[in-house]
């Protein structure tokens, strides 16, 4: 890791799953910190929110960067580092010849990754890693804000 490495922690979730969801991301470059969050008041899934968090964080970068991206989702980490190239090669079908779930987000994440040099790391959720805990709180904030905004529109 260099002084120019952007460190990103992401999290996402729903209450209940499926249901309304939120995502959060913490981006650090040297002493600079950016917190991001958002959500969907309608029916979404934990996996969609876990995917949305790194997408939004990577898309927020203003120039290509070296990125260390931490997620507590093995689905996201394994998907982007192991499975996505096979899915793409197979016409976005799984090994069981079923359509890949969340293909729209996987494709968007591929594009965001291609614009940067991203190294992926898994971190155990709720294990005391400060920025992972902050990303979790931001995801909850995003969920709550999405629900509140939907109530105001009624």
TrEMBL record:
PANTHER family: RIBONUCLEASE H1 (PTHR10642:SF26). Endonuclease that specifically degrades the RNA of RNA-DNA hybrids. It is found in: Cytoplasm. Mg(2+) 2 binds at residues 11, 136. GO terms for molecular function: RNA-DNA hybrid ribonuclease activity. It catalyses: Endonucleolytic cleavage to 5'-phosphomonoester. Its EC number is 3.1.26.4. It is an enzyme of class 3 (hydrolase). Transmembrane segments: none annotated. Binds 1 Mg(2+) ion per subunit. May bind a second metal ion at a regulatory site, or after substrate binding. The lineage of its organism: Bacteria, Bacillati, Actinomycetota, Actinomycetes, Mycobacteriales. The keyword Ligase does not apply. This is Ribonuclease H. PROSITE patterns: RNASE_H_1. Belongs to the RNase H family. InterPro entries: RNase_H, RNaseH-like_sf, RNaseH_domain, RNaseH_sf, RNaseHI. Keywords: Cytoplasm, Endonuclease, Hydrolase, Magnesium, Metal-binding, Nuclease. Its cofactor is Mg(2+). Residues 2-144 form the RNase H type-1 domain. The gene is rnhA. Mg(2+) 1 binds at residues 11, 50, 72. It holds the Pfam family RNase_H. Monomer. Its main location: cytoplasm.
